[in-house]
Amino acid sequence: MGNKSVLLLVLLFLVGIVLKSTFFEVNEGRQAIITQFGKPVGEPITDAGLHTKIPFIQEARFVDKRILSWDGYPNQIPTKDKKYIKVDTTARWKVVDALKFIQTVRNESGAKARLDAILDSATRDVISNHNLVEAVRNSNAIIQKIEEKKEEIQRMKAEGKPVIEEGVSGEIEKILVGRENLSGMIVKSAEPELTAFGIELIDVQLRRISYEKSVESKVYERMTSERQRIAQKIRSIGQGEKAKIEGRLERDLREIRSQAYKKAQILRGKGEAKAVKIYAQSLSADPNFYQFLKTMEVYKNSIQERTKFLMSSDGELFKFFKKIN
Amino acid sequence: MNNDWDRAKADLQKGMKFVVPLIGLLFVVGLIRTSFYTVDPDEEAVIIRFGQYVGTSQPGLHFKLPLGIDDVILVKTKRVLQQEFGFRTRNTSGRRTTYDEKNFDIESLMLTGDLNVADVEWVVQYQIADPFKYLFQTSAPERNIHDVSESIMRRVVGDRLVTEVLTTGRVEIATEAKDLMQEILDKYDMGVKVVTVKLQDVNPPDVVKKSFNEVNAAKQEQEKVINQAEEAYNRVIPEARGKAEKLISEAEGYAKAQVNEAEGDAQKFSAILTEYRRAPSITRKRIYLETMESILKKVKDITVVDESVKGVLPVYSGKGAINGK
User: Fold this and answer.
1) What predicted TM-score, i.e. pTM, was given to this entire model?
2) Check: complex ipTM more than 0.85
């Protein structure tokens, strides 16, 4: 009995080894190639699940089926307009022909080395054949926007409103290709080489584009001076507005004052004229008597106390000093 | 020797009596333990059988095939996940959130359409819409989201002026970035839904910040200067208007007074004239004398000079003569 059970155990063990060598799992996101003594056999297996092969003779090798990422090393590239920029790209790729892939690059790290070389040179070619703006902007919408803004400023100026202009220094260059299309061009130029490795390039993204350190400081200097210029302009517009208001103040003030003076004088004149007319009408009834009356009044009102008075005795008042009757 | 062997065999057989049930028990426990699983409310579970995807299960208690036949991968699908750009949150457990002090300028510095530099920080919030695709469509989903978002943000900012990026464009940039990101992630078919893209701090680079602030200060200054001028205008002009009205009213008063006085005087004269005409001579005399009386009463020193007294000093001293009357 003892011997039998030992034999059974050994047999079970052998069966286990054979099964393990026959069945193999293909995980989701992976694909497998069966090789026989190192030579690929049949089509790649791309369905996930349990599969079989001839035990011991055949071997399963796995390749990723998912979209893989490639991260490029930031490159310093001069653009066509001689601006030194750092371009940092990423790409997504996947293995579409596992057989070719295994034969040509063996594995992912082998593929990465090829991608580095191919994508770097493609990026370099495309970037250095275009002006910087082509890699920065994607459309000419910005130019249209500036035009619209200019029109608006013109309109506001025409309406006499104070305008704060934050103008753009220099001309905004028109682009012909644009950022997305540059990415597309990189993909297009790298694609044929990568097909040979069984790789499909899904996209290349220009992740970061930045100025070279030395260029950067110049750009900052320009930005600073541009801002200072704008600040100065804003200030002087303020001063201009102030002067305008002050002018308006002076004008309105003078107008108000002079008009009031004019009106007052007219009113006074009219009043006086009326008075003159009334006096003339009434007094002309007996000018002589008026003269007499007014004279008396003047005497009364104009001779003050302490006035020294010298009178002739010939006057009406003192005629009785000399003689009665 | 033979004895030892027998004894060992006996021990083994004795031991087997305990070991076999023990192994059986462990087997049963393991069987039960691996045949169910729970899914938390914020998760979904992806079930993999022999490497192959068989389904997704919702929160709750579920059964599966035991002993590693079914594999369960839990994915937090309900949770809104976040990636940060230009900064990293370090700790949110305290009263105040702390941030990593490391500089992430490389992520946040980007070129604007007018070739200036802006420092843009933002977050992307996303949800896993399809756990299976999220797990198996791409090799590094989070890395992809990060790369794509960086690339897209630069593309969106690259189509705008620096002033727009820093001020009015925030909402528009965020929305556009979100839509474009989703478009690209959908192309990868990686089961991610972008919930929102939010711009955080958007600043000019540190070096030029001062000059940007100067522009803001200039704007304030401009407003201040204009306001001050307006204020002066509003202070002076209404007062001048009031004064003008006063002047006019005064003139009106003056004119009316002139007319009234003239009319009064005229009527008075007419009245007196009527009576005077009845006895002109005596009235004249009376008025003359009355006037003289009132004058001489006030006068302190009066000298009457007579024509016939020649070469002699005046004789009558008014004091005694008249005042003493």
Assistant:
1) 0.71
2) no
